Known about the structure:
This protein has a domain at 41-123: Ubiquitin Conjugating Enzyme (Roll). It has helices at 12-26, 111-121, and strands at 32-37, 40-49, 60-66, 77-80. With 132 residues, the protein is of the alpha+beta class. Residues 12-132 form the UBC core domain. Keywords: Acyltransferase, Transferase.
Amino acid sequence: MAAVEKYNLKNPAVKRILQEVKEMQSSPSDDFMSLPLEENIFEWQFAIRGPRETEFEGGIYHGRIQLPAEYPFKPPSFMLLTPNGRFETQTKICLSISNHHPEHWQPSWSVRTALVALIAFMPTPPNGALGS
């Protein structure tokens, strides 16, 4: 992450994001991969595997996470870029872990927590939620 020098390393959001990057790199998951863009650590790209034993199994789904300047005290937004049959592409996803429901977000949650939740939400019925 060559662009880190341009950020205030005392900023709580920057410190937290860099901590999460380090954790993602040192403890990778078999179910997803995610890292921030080189030029903007507040924007992450991710790839998730479709949940096992569901209609999504075998698929790889690419998306984007936008972290707010107040992260982790405010929730991120999520967008899937790969057609998947569950969530609209190029549309912010309405989930309890997203910025559509900030009242549910917990600062102890992380990008990792959110991606695990997103994978778990994939096979659930949409019930009219935005982006679903």
